[in-house]
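Hello Y.,

Per our agreement to keep a running log of every chain we model this quarter, I'm adding this entry. I've kept the format consistent with earlier entries: sequence first, then predicted structure.
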Amino acid sequence: MTFEQILFILFAGIVVGGAASVLLQRNPLYSAFSLITTFVGLACLYVTLKAQFLGVVQIVVYAGAIMMLFVFVIMLLNIRDEDTAVDPNRFLVYLTIPLGAILLGALLYVVTKVNLAQPTGDEGGTVERIGTNLLTKYLLPFEATSVLILMAVVGALHLAKREKE
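Predicted structure for the entry above:
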């Protein structure tokens, strides 16, 4: 097993652990922090797969901007103590041990049986290739996405203004 494969498995474990922590946290703010850990692990996975641009975008956009919005929403909701009382479905936590064992078995199978070799060829996610494709071949979906995001922001502002009134 090469050093890159060991790093990939380590970062994949961080991603899975962060995702499990998102689900198991009782406090939504701690869950958001665990999601940041998951995003950082994903960025590290992208870097190990030689897609540095995607790794940087993962940190800047998701771990930075999107998570900032999540934290603001959590703070604006002002969750009270009675909302974080004892969960009636607390017994579901005990399902994590068998499900974790199944996931660990799947991970061991992938590590031992599946070839994790790097793809060959010039199909990497370089900034030049992504920029060229984004502004030529995929210009219409890129602009449509920006319009959809703008509509979501306007809708959120409208809903926030209506609740104050």
